[in-house]
């Protein structure tokens, strides 16, 4: 990247960084939907395969559409290099496969995406990588879990669905004092709201399926960080094949062009809804770090540009009352996905967190009266009217 591009502001980078033109003078970037690439001569093929001449070989290794997305993501997160993957989970697994070996130890927050727990507790464990799970916001637990063979600390901030936050500078110092790496799942904030690498994290991972696509269309993932770390994931991807489809990459980098505006609008709607719900007589409690009543409010205010598009609230009553609100909405989508233009509503206790034991649910604050709303870009008054249908019945 030239110095000139380094000096661009976020919005400009999101639109202008990483463009590869095909020679056809297209203005909007082309989709390079091809599995392999051709050469002028046998000699050139040999040079490209040997790495003596720059060029693409096969889209499992590299592809121009995927590269455009990777370069743009690296710029937005403030990292040297990015590696895209076929899903968020493929990015998390790929980064772990690149960095870890049997005998290594990982410390992971309990408040991470459920499948992330499965990958660490079941699959990496099977290959001799052991994981200790800790309470996300208890720094002492992270310190106490540290072992000489600890290589990686993994967390997600803010957490899903309660929006708890952890201080990334403190977490980076805990990791680095012990020669471990800090990997942060930045899915809920996106680089538009939070840039963990700038606060000391070593690697950022994303499910681009969420806010980065922003329209609920494509599955994808990406990791960003220093060259020597991300290169390890690139080598794994070349061999193991969980590469991002060029078509999906095209959707993602086009979507990055509006990421900043979309996140501003998600945050504005979420804040307005949180304030309205907090005053509602049928609502027991609202969990949104934008509210002063939230325990993470001042840290979120310092660490993030805004408070994100996801909130949770407890209705007065239990499961029956929560389901009444869920069932009464007319246009809000009953689905577990998030980061969509369309607002989605979920009952965590019986869907996203249904596999947790009652004890773990209680520990994570996943009560039967809790509802999560991933606030979309519809008109705020319409959203309020839709949620009020059920709340008015309680
Ligand atoms: C969805 C999600 C993932 C997994 O991503 P996929 O694209 O579904 O594989 C990981 N982390 C968080 C925070 C998520 O929301």
TrEMBL record:
<dbReference type="InterPro" id="IPR006234">
    <property type="entry name" value="O-succ-hSer_sulfhydrylase"/>
</dbReference>
<keyword id="KW-0808">Transferase</keyword>
<dbReference type="InterPro" id="IPR015421">
    <property type="entry name" value="PyrdxlP-dep_Trfase_major"/>
</dbReference>
<comment type="similarity">
    <text>Belongs to the trans-sulfuration enzymes family. MetZ subfamily.</text>
</comment>
<dbReference type="GO" id="GO:0071268">
    <property type="term" value="P:homocysteine biosynthetic process"/>
</dbReference>
<dbReference type="GO" id="GO:0005737">
    <property type="term" value="C:cytoplasm"/>
</dbReference>
<protein>
    <recommendedName>
        <fullName>O-succinylhomoserine sulfhydrylase</fullName>
        <ecNumber>2.5.1.-</ecNumber>
    </recommendedName>
</protein>
<keyword id="KW-0663">Pyridoxal phosphate</keyword>
<dbReference type="GO" id="GO:0071266">
    <property type="term" value="P:'de novo' L-methionine biosynthetic process"/>
</dbReference>
<comment type="function">
    <text>Catalyzes the formation of L-homocysteine from O-succinyl-L-homoserine (OSHS) and hydrogen sulfide.</text>
</comment>
<dbReference type="GO" id="GO:0019346">
    <property type="term" value="P:transsulfuration"/>
</dbReference>
<dbReference type="GO" id="GO:0030170">
    <property type="term" value="F:pyridoxal phosphate binding"/>
</dbReference>
<keyword id="KW-0028">Amino-acid biosynthesis</keyword>
<comment type="subunit">
    <text>Homotetramer.</text>
</comment>
<dbReference type="InterPro" id="IPR054542">
    <property type="entry name" value="Cys_met_metab_PP"/>
</dbReference>
<feature type="modified residue" description="N6-(pyridoxal phosphate)lysine">
    <location>
        <position position="210"/>
    </location>
</feature>
<dbReference type="GO" id="GO:0016765">
    <property type="term" value="F:transferase activity, transferring alkyl or aryl (other than methyl) groups"/>
</dbReference>
<dbReference type="InterPro" id="IPR015424">
    <property type="entry name" value="PyrdxlP-dep_Trfase"/>
</dbReference>
<dbReference type="GO" id="GO:0016846">
    <property type="term" value="F:carbon-sulfur lyase activity"/>
</dbReference>
<dbReference type="InterPro" id="IPR015422">
    <property type="entry name" value="PyrdxlP-dep_Trfase_small"/>
</dbReference>
<dbReference type="Pfam" id="PF01053">
    <property type="entry name" value="Cys_Met_Meta_PP"/>
</dbReference>
<keyword id="KW-0486">Methionine biosynthesis</keyword>
<dbReference type="InterPro" id="IPR000277">
    <property type="entry name" value="Cys/Met-Metab_PyrdxlP-dep_enz"/>
</dbReference>
<comment type="pathway">
    <text>Amino-acid biosynthesis; L-methionine biosynthesis via de novo pathway; L-homocysteine from O-succinyl-L-homoserine: step 1/1.</text>
</comment>
